[in-house]
Specification:
The protein has 23 helices and nine strands. The chain is α+β, with helices and mostly antiparallel strands and 545 residues long. Helix 9 crosses helix 10 and helix 20 packs across helix 23. The longest helix is centred in the N-terminal third of the chain and has 22 residues.
């Protein structure tokens, strides 16, 4: 190999000429000529009106940060991450074939700009109340009449059909000398929804998406642009510790005041190197970074258990499902999304934000049940209870009475799509009968509710590109070799395991009617029934904070 190929000057100068003040990183530099022109579109500005943590502010009052601030944070972390990988290219001579890193050598600024813009755009598809909207609207055939799937698919459509052209125009007129075509070619590879999303959407059969619109991992390409695009995608989103996760864990912990220990972002980035495996570029973490990676994975589990899947948070989320089914909201959402999907009127998405739904809830908050029927039909009573729970009392009609933690092993039936609900019904029936026979208390079947939730040891997106962790042995700042571990084996070996949460709720009026003694005895019977049906004793898996 001609060594002169490796001597192309690596110019990483970025045209930063402005700064954003941020509570996490203090100062985030950006370009008025590039990133500001993307930020100042309705696509990004809309994210100011989506809470990052949906209804969590009802549990943690300070959790009012937005997807806009998170997206800026991801832009910043993605830049630091990608810049670190590029800065070490000269140490990889004779270790990685030149063709695999040609784009990094020839177009370093384009790679960095793509990573930054991808960080900005990664959440643009979110609907009102974010993941709740995915659950109750985008993934259900009976809501829109077809399944979009999730926010990643809608975000890709907004990029493909609207924002891509805008980004091209911005870069062409920026006067920075950055090649617009290379940037959008890389963005194309980052913004596509993952291959696994195909089974959850009807947009292929409708002709709105093709298979080429998904990021396929069946046969990874060794094309230089594909190699670079794969790395940018992993840095931003599909990896064990992408910029997305690095930012949201720290940001969400800060705003909820939920300590998760030290997440050493800079160290994790510094201990990540590019290596070549079977002709493909992959990021590898050095042995020196493993402890911090495990700390990050445990911190993620801690946040899921205590914030994202907080029992009150889960109950509020379920109430939002009722609100989305309200006639007026369903009609507004269906008409808006349909015009976006079928007619390309994506700017209508500005009318669907958290603030839109809160506005309607506030308007309805003082209506009588009869007047609310006009807006919500047969769901008026449920919606009124929800409104009172959210606005008037910050109390839900459901009260969490107990939560159990189990390892995933032995709980497969509860997680099964085919048998999960049957297992919950069986458990519920057993609890009601046991309470009646032992305590003489008759409980109606709809006064007890059981939620089964899973906390994974690592983000599912980590497997979208590779199912392996690459661990590098380094000499100085240069990887000299690496070993490969399956992700599942990697986390299990280091004590990070999936957990199953069983949360039992009781209708609040029933809860308030019980004496302390009755509640204590009932909890003992519930625990006995859960142990009987699962064959497991509760086990809290140790975790570091």
């Amino acid at each position: 190999m001609d060594q002169r190929l490796y001597e192309i000057p690596l110019t990483r100068f970025m045209p930063f000429n402005a700064v954003i003040h941020d509570v996490i990183y203090d100062y985030i530099p950006y370009s008025k000529d590039i990133e500001a022109q993307v930020m100042d579109t309705w696509v990004l500005q809309r994210l100011r009106y989506l809470y990052q943590l949906q209804l969590t502010h009802l549990v943690y009052p300070s959790a009012t940060h937005t997807r806009f601030s998170h997206s800026i944070g991801v832009m910043h972390v993605a830049y630091k991450f990608m810049n670190n990988l590029l800065s070490r290219l000269d140490t990889l001579r004779n270790k990685i074939p030149y063709e695999e890193v040609r784009v990094f050598y020839n177009k370093p600024r384009e790679v960095l700009v793509a990573a930054r813009i991808a960080g900005l755009l990664h959440d643009i598809g979110h609907g009102p109340f974010s993941h709740s909207f995915d659950r109750y609207v985008y993934s259900k055939t009976n809501y829109l009449g077809y399944r979009i799937g999730n926010h990643e698919i809608l975000g890709y459509l907004i990029y493909r059909d609207y924002l891509r052209k805008h980004v091209l125009g911005v870069l062409k007129s920026s006067g920075t000398g950055i090649d617009p075509d290379t940037v959008v070619e890389l963005l194309d590879r980052v913004m596509k929804p993952p291959e696994g999303a195909i089974i959850g959407t009807d947009l292929l059969s409708m002709g709105i998406l093709g298979k080429d619109d998904f990021y396929l991992k069946e046969a990874p390409s060794t094309d230089p642009l594909d190699q670079a695009g794969r790395i940018v995608r992993m840095v931003v989103r599909d990896f064990l510790y992408p910029a997305d996760i690095l930012d949201y864990l720290i940001r969400d912990s800060y705003y909820t005041k939920t300590p998760i220990g030290m997440i050493n972002v800079d160290w994790l980035i510094l201990q990540t190197y590019l290596v070549s495996h079977k002709g493909l570029l992959v990021p590898a973490i050095s042995d020196k970074g493993l402890d911090d990676l495990i700390r990050l994975l445990n911190a993620r589990k801690f946040m899921y258990k205590n914030v994202y899947l907080h029992p009150v948070n889960l109950a509020f989320d379920e109430l939002m499902g009722t609100v989305f089914e309200c006639d007026e909201i369903k009609s507004m959402v269906t008409e808006t999304i349909d015009k976006m999907i079928r007619e390309g009127e994506y700017n209508l998405y500005t009318t669907l934000t958290d603030h839109t739904i809160y506005g309607l809830i506030l308007k309805w908050s003082n209506l009588s049940i009869d007047k609310l029927h006009h807006y919500c039909g047969e769901r008026a009573r449920d919606v009124l209870d929800t409104i009172k729970g959210i606005l008037h009392y910050r109390k839900m009609p459901w009260k969490k009475i107990v939560r159990y933690h189990f390892p995933k092993k032995g709980m497969s039936l509860f997680l099964s799509k085919k048998y999960g609900n049957k297992m919950i019904d069986l458990l519920l029936t057993g609890i009601i009968e046991n309470v009646r026979d032992s305590l003489g208390i008759d409980i109606e079947h709809d006064k007890i509710k059981i939620k089964i939730t899973k906390i994974t040891a690592y983000p599912t997106s980590a497997k979208e590109i590779t199912e392996y962790v690459y661990i590098a042995r380094t000499r100085g700042e240069t990887p000299i070799d690496f070993r490969i571990e399956n992700i599942d084996s990697f986390v299990k070996k280091r004590g990070v395991e999936d957990e199953i949460l069983i949360t039992v709720y009781m209708w609040r009026e029933l809860y308030n009617s019980l004496s302390d003694e009755q509640l204590k005895n009932m909890l003992s019977l519930i625990e006995e029934e859960i142990r009987e049906i699962t064959g497991l004793r509760e086990k809290v898996i140790p975790e570091t904070s």
